[in-house]
Design a protein that fits this description.
alpha+beta, 2 helices, single chain, three-stranded antiparallel sheet, two-stranded antiparallel sheet
Amino acid sequence: MSVTLSSTAPVARRKHMCVFCGFTIGVGVQYSRWTGVDSGEFYSSAGHIACEGVWRDHNTGYEDEISTDYETFRDEDM
């Protein structure tokens, strides 16, 4: 079971990789950041706000794992 501990929308001070599309989140770009615990393991993830929106539109919620095939996500959803 996954539990989200925090969800924020900071502005990137360094580059990050989007967990949805696999592209870089550039410095100065606002992005989604969330942290939590899944099966006793801590996680922290970052994604483009637009990519998270597409993912939310196609999934029921965070109880579904984020196990995206980057190319499929970009080709079909973006």
